[in-house]
Here is the input.
Amino acid sequence: MKAVRKSKQKETDDNVYLRMPLDRVKQDALAGVSLARQMWRARDPDAAGRMLGFVIEPNQQKPRQKEQKTGNRE
Here is the structure.
């Protein structure tokens, strides 16, 4: 478990988008660069959520409601 955390930390430390201005990170994220999207979400989660869509964690999902059958359908 600790090895996974260390590798994730190293991956984040090696990310060049940590050292770039936020405007450049935003441009690359909107162009589809996944590392830029990750760093933009980490550095400015509200703005990234509005532009890219908010991330819903599995524990935050609401269970789907079953469809109720109403009326006669042909």
Summary: The mean pLDDT is 75. The helical segments are 2-13, 22-31, 34-43, 45-52.
